[in-house]
Amino acid sequence: MIGQTVTGLAHRRTNRDQVTDLVDGAIAGAVGTVALNVVTYLDMTVRARPASSTPEESARRLTEALHIGLGPEDRAANRRSGLGPLLGYAIGVACGAALTVVGLRRLPGPVAAGLFGAGAMLASDGMLTVLRITDPRRWSRSDWLSDVVPHLAYGMAARATLDHLNQARRPNRRFPLRVHPD
């Protein structure tokens, strides 16, 4: 029965619905990424902890794996400083889009928020693990909290953004907009 319901939903969705989900999801992913960064920077401020080197190291390993030269080392270091955060935004936007397209926007709010956060965390930590920058199996409790909390903020912000975008598309039934010609 659940399979028939999912199949029925898939057949009723139009290309326009899928494009809307893709665009809305990208917007939600961008907002979620901002929320994740704000929570991360607040954590750094409160605990006086240093910035992570993983964004720059990700950029270094990824450009090396793809054989992309970044120029002389002094310029390459600066480029990695810019590319690292851009990779984070790209992952956040792509996760928002992908997770919306697969249907998370239709789940109850708290469930969707948790899954958005978990999906973004899996994508970012998965990339760091594949590039051998980190090994989550060796993380401390503090390391996990420093990763989970910002990703939950990502999920909550992404879901709230999708809710807002959904409401913005609905006609206001209590106060409909009426245009009167002069």
TrEMBL record:
<keyword id="KW-0472">Membrane</keyword>
<keyword id="KW-1133">Transmembrane helix</keyword>
<protein>
    <recommendedName>
        <fullName>DUF1440 domain-containing protein</fullName>
    </recommendedName>
</protein>
<keyword id="KW-0812">Transmembrane</keyword>
<feature type="transmembrane region" description="Helical">
    <location>
        <begin position="86"/>
        <end position="105"/>
    </location>
</feature>
<feature type="transmembrane region" description="Helical">
    <location>
        <begin position="111"/>
        <end position="131"/>
    </location>
</feature>
